[in-house]
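Please, structure for the following, as tokens.
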Amino acid sequence: MNGVRQEPGRDFDRLGGELVFRRALAQEGRLGAVRWLSMLLGVAGTYRKHENVDVVYEVAGRRTVATLTPGSDPSP
């Protein structure tokens, strides 16, 4: 998560086809009109916490990486 290796059984559990993390994952959420305007004018940026999970797995001997966000559906 965000470049830090997570260990199964310690940081998350696998329940069926889902990964369930033992702590809440932070998402930035929607930006309001004032925040958009301040970014457009170059007055301020956005530095909110936004966590992603990179899942590394193998399919037919080929290494694959999927970047997931909480609540995302990894199915193609």
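The two ends are 21 Å apart (CA to CA). The chain has one domain: 12-68.
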